[in-house]
Design goal:
Radius of gyration: 17 Å
Number of domains: 1
CATH class: Alpha Beta
Strand content: 15-25%
Structural class: alpha/beta
Low-confidence stretches: none
Bound molecules: 2-phosphoglycolic acid
Number of strands: 8
Helix content: 40-55%
Length: 244
């Protein structure tokens, strides 16, 4: 992975097949960058493959062996040349009871197949108000990255996504993001010795605020939810961060 900025589009579970075909008509023409990673609902992945951008999973299974109804394994992903997976998104932590330990196993399983993981971490509003952001982030990182060698960390991208900023149009100040990104890099360095971890920001990134956000000097790119499902908005974000 080169040292270029990346933009990840997390399409979540919002689009139906008509939305997907309209969306693809625009983005397949306009996006020509391997630094763009689009993560559609799994059922639509075949429509997104073999284009001029990368495709990622929104989740991945933590094991290879055995029959696990409904899950997608790293081996299956790699067989379609899918090299990226989002892991530990707060929506999965909150609604599907994903723990740090489960997330750790998913990361190890994916990296063992030489995939890259986009590990989401971030505090809730309550944790922020109780001044526990650093503590929460440290815990999430220590647990999720437990047992990873430096070589394995090369395949990890962190996405700092404050839970209270997701889908709300509220974002932290530039200074707050910068400070937390620095903190994340320091924690990773302390626990592993790895100094080059990429950190993305996610949470209400859109075509209007991306210019300011992109000025943050230690940021490696963005994880975009809602705005990535609107082709025009997503293209503007990509133009600002990558294609300019
Ligand atoms: P949002 O979502 O951009 O809609 O806030 C980001 C995410 O959940 O990854």
């Amino acid at each position: 992975m080169e040292n270029k900025k990346i933009v990840v589009g997390n399409l979540k579970s919002t689009m139906n097949i008509e939305d997907v075909s309209k969306y693809l008509q625009v983005i397949n023409k306009e996006i020509a960058s391997k630094e763009v990673i689009i993560c559609p609902s799994s059922i639509y992945i075949p429509y997104f493959l073999k284009k001029n951008y990368q495709v990622g999973l929104q989740n991945i299974f933590l094991d290879e062996g055995g029959p696990y109804t409904g899950e997608i394994t790293p081996t299956q992903a790699v067989s379609l040349e899918i090299r990226y997976a989002i892991v530990g998104h707060s929506e999965r932590r909150i609604h599907l009871n994903e723990t740090d330990e489960i997330i750790n196993k998913k990361i190890v399983a994916a990296i063992n197949k030489n995939m890259y993981v986009i590990l989401c971490i971030g505090e809730t509003l309550e944790e922020k108000e109780m001044l526990r952001t650093d503590m929460v982030i440290r815990r999430q990182l220590v647990n999720a990255l437990n047992g990873l060698s430096i070589d394995m960390l090369y395949n990890v991208i962190i996405a700092y996504e404050p839970v209270w900023a997701i889908g709300t149009n509220n974002i932290p100040s530039i200074k707050e993001i910068e400070k937390t990104v620095e903190y994340i890099k320091n924690v990773v360095k302390q626990i592993s010795g790895y100094e080059d971890i990429k950190v993305l920001y996610g949470g209400s990134v859109n075509e209007h605020n991306v210019k300011e956000l992109n000025k943050i000097n230690n940021i490696s790119g963005f994880l975009v939810g809602g705005a990535s499902t609107k082709a025009d908005s997503f293209l503007k974000i990509i133009d600002e961060v990558i294609q300019k």
